[in-house]
Amino acid sequence: MPVNLDELLQGKPVFINVGVRAFGDSLREAGHEVIYLDWSPPAGGDPRLAAILDDLL
Amino acid sequence: MSLRERINAANEEALRRIVAADPVLVDVAPASEVIPGLRDRMILHSGPPVAWDRMCGAQRGAAIGMCLFEGWANDPAEAERLLNSGEIAQEPNHHHATVGPMAGTITRNMWVWVVENRAFGNRAFCRQVESFQQFGDYSAEALAALAKWRDIWGPALGAAVRKMGGLPLKPLVARALHMGDEMHNRVVASSSLFANAVAPVLVDCGLPKEQVLSTLYYTGNHPFLFLGLSMAAAKASMDPARGVEASTVVTAMARNGTEFGIQVSGLEGEWFTAPAPRVHGLLLPGWKEEDAGLDMGDSAITETVGWGGFAIGGAPGILAFTGGTAEQALAYSRDMRTISVGTSPDYLLPALNFEGTAVGIDIRKVVQTNTVPVIDTAIAHREPGHGIIGGGIVRPPLECFSRALARFSEKYQG
Questions:
Q1: What is the distance between the alpha carbons of residues B15 and B19, in angstroms, rounded to a whole number?
Q2: What is the CB neighbour count within 10 angstroms for residue B249?
Q3: A27 has pLDDT over 80
Q4: Does the residue B2 lie in any domain?
Q5: CB-CB neighbours of B245 under 10 Å
Q6: What is the ipTM of this complex?
Q7: Most-buried pick from A4, B326, B328, B365 (CB within 10 A)?
Q8: Contact state of A52 with B405 under an 8 Å Cβ cutoff
Q9: Residues 5..34 of A with a Cβ closer than 8 Å to B: which?
Q10: Chain B partners of A55 at a C-beta cutoff of 8 Å?
Q11: Digit-coded pLDDT (tens) for B133-173
Q12: Looking at the DSSP assignment, which residues form a beta bridge with residue B115?
């Protein structure tokens, strides 16, 4: 899909907030449009379990 | 075949067994006659194994009640001494193909629903549901209700069910899900469907008129009547999925008020536990947060099979009991698909465009997404001697699933 760079740079940005919601909240308070993506590190951030999941899932 | 492929194939087999289940109510009978391995002077309880000295207040109260009910003790102090001495054996219901609501206590003279899974030939058992003794109340009034179930209602319903030649529960549950039940704490429709089905047979069993009238009143006015049946049906449906080598599907979630425990198909016989969580919800008038005990009961077998919190999006009426909004309830049911192997072809939710309930909780997906099952539940007091004090929503500790995954890796990856 062709991208119109001028339009992208001059248009109003839309932010995608991944994970911790508070970052997006401050952008929204500043008047920006924010799309929230609910995400957290797999296995609560435990690297041993994440490695197991890499093999098993 | 890689281990990942073995797991996926094993989970498909576990799912196939769960959805193929055909639970049929075949009897109501004394526990001593039907529950395998239930001995005299033994109390079965909900959740993973727990010793008397670590038992929560409500389960202690319920155990005291059973000692009085069985005539093993003459008063609560004597019952407590007996339980302290270790003379009364205490084992989890799940070790006996059985489930029990809240404290879940079952002894020889407690009558139980008997559900046979006709697709596999296994049977499962659950006691009746009430609002007092199973929450830890051992008063004379609470025990009188147990005696009525033993002497009047249980025998009458047993006679009727045998005369019917059994009552298939799959179509009844499927219809109740269309009527706003979720088969855990919202069983109003299924209880009515059951009462309607059993009533004409009950009056034709040759029982004394007083017994028939009392039983008709009991079945027609008990808003939680069917919970004992849905629990037995869920247990009978889940047990054939146990012991599928390399399967990561959860076969039981159960709580004893001290610990939350899960069991996993490919790790048969093992429990993975963590401290029992607090339930968030609504308390009955007069009770405060600090009165509440922690999460308790085998009734999460309904979520394990894909009902309860997994079907709550189709049961907004339950929110009056648990709190929350209809939108949250829909989101819960959708979220549960992300941690499950598949969906049911039979148990459909009109509110979710007649899609099937999520079935087969996969510990890998739970740990990957940090999304734990949603369970709706009742709340007991933290001390012995009280009836129900509220209801709400609870989430299991992620730790149970993390521990199971680590053990699975140890067993299958070496």
A1: 6
A2: 29
A3: yes
A4: no
A5: 11
A6: 0.88
A7: B365
A8: yes
A9: none
A10: 3-4, 409, 413
A11: 999 999 999 999 999 999 999 999 999 999 999 999 999 99
A12: B25, B124
